[in-house]
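Predict the 3D structure for this chain.
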Amino acid sequence: MGEINDQFKEQQIMEWYEIYYKDIYRFIFYMMGDRQCCEDLVHDTFVRAFTSYEKFESRTKVKTWLFSIAKHLVIDEIRRRKRKKVFSLFANDPEIQSSFNIEQYIEHRETIERTLEAIQQLKPDYRLVITLKKVEECSTKEISEILGWSESKIRKTLSRGLAALKKMDVLEGSEYFEKTF
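Done. Predicted structure below.
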């Protein structure tokens, strides 16, 4: 019986991997800015999903649950490093697709690069909320479920994170990013 259960779990996790790999990869990449670390953490996210499968509650969305697992792994990694990481630019990496329009990306590349580098310098809480809200386009409610915070705390943290980005002068002078962020 346990073997059938493990086969079912493995099949389910592989299915989720196919569906959510790019989302989880992009989220972790924006948080860490390190391709190798990203691959490891994406792998660890799905391994943890397999080992914690029984804890998954169908009342939450699979994607939300996977983001929650990834968030914990990212925070652990950030704590382990305890030093600022220089953002490695992904340039023309076809694996990383984002919601950015390619023409706008080319037109506003320098601003985008500065913004991504600045996000890497933010406190982990700001980085989490900005990445989930502005990059992954999660709703405040979804972010609340992922982080286990109140929606009010999400809004305050987002506001403070965006203010911190503005203080770095990253968002100034870019109509595209002022609309997006």
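The first helix runs from residue 2 to 32.
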